[in-house]
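Many introductory courses stop at the sequence. We go one step further.
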Amino acid sequence: MANTYTQLYTQYVFSVKGRGNFIQEKFRDELEKIMCGIISNHKCKTYAIYCNPDHTHIFVGMHPTIAPSKLMEQVKSGSSNWLNNKKYIPGKFSWQDGYGAFTYSKSHIDKVVKYVLNQPVHHRKQSFKEEYLSFLEKFDVDYDPKYLFEWYDNA
């Protein structure tokens, strides 16, 4: 019987709408577990996740039956609904539209996991905007600056 065999490793990066620092340490672990559950429910594997106050990195081993856009739709809507139901954030929480998706080979798994888990230290040296633009350049992604995330100089 034929089967489908894949090695699909993707790092997703997405931002809080308005780039507010809404993800607080007191519920970050719980939020990350909710996101990991959504990912698992779609037969994917979370290798690393870190929810910064204003953006999130998730490194995932993808299952071939789900499109990256569908997985991100489910993760972002499910986690937004959870945060709004928990009322951890005043007002209505949502993620910005869009995301970055960057693929890696199996030999890069350990390096990417360390990068994602080391976010607090990393962002002492580099802003989210600098980080995201460096991803786009490193992966040679053609983009139009007017369609990037909303950037705020004070964030």
